[in-house]
Amino acid sequence: MGLEIVLNDITEGAKADVRRINEETKVTSEQIIGEARQASKEALGSRLLEVEEKLEQQRQQVLSSANLEVKRIVLNKRKALLDQVYDQALEKIENLPANENEKYLKTLIKNHEKGGFKIYSNAKSEELVKKNSKLEYGGNIDCVGGIVIENKDGTVRLDFTYDLILKTVYDRSLKSISDILNG
């Protein structure tokens, strides 16, 4: 019987050790699993934060691109409108009533023929220019209207064509026109 008691004590001691080891293992494994879950949550959170930041950057890029495209379209439309107005103004100048054209040509000739030698105009205004100028008529030029005055040796040409006058006024006014359109 003494052997059975020793064997029982050893068995009970071994069972107690197994229970203690199982409990320690359970506590340790729960601790490891808890730490792993926490690490996983942290990794997922940081990855989620990175993804959100990238999405926000992409959203900003898409918005910027869209805004630039809208501005480009608006600018193109404004340019087309300005070009249309310019073309209409040029057409109106080209179709000036004869008496207005004569008045403008007389004023140009009177104010600028001094020091000139030759004068040029379009074919439509040739007779008017010849009649109102003391300068030698140099011939016809391709323009909507107006005159070009040249010095004796041909080195200086003063361009008072309606085309150039309109273009100059248009270019000077473009900034203020653009400011008006932009509000």
TrEMBL record:
Q: Which SUPFAM superfamilies match?
A: V-type ATPase subunit E-like
- Write out the function statement from the record: Component of the A-type ATP synthase that produces ATP from ADP in the presence of a proton gradient across the membrane.
Q: What is the lineage of its organism?
A: Archaea, Methanobacteriati, Methanobacteriota, Stenosarchaea group, Methanomicrobia
Q: How does it assemble?
A: Has multiple subunits with at least A(3), B(3), C, D, E, F, H, I and proteolipid K(x).
Q: Spell out the subcellular localization from the entry.
A: Cell membrane
The source's superkingdom equals Archaea
Recorded GO CC terms: plasma membrane; proton-transporting two-sector ATPase complex, catalytic domain
Whichever gene encodes this chain, its name is atpE
Q: Topology in the membrane?
A: Peripheral membrane protein
Record protein name field: A-type ATP synthase subunit E
**Keyword Coiled coil on entry:** no
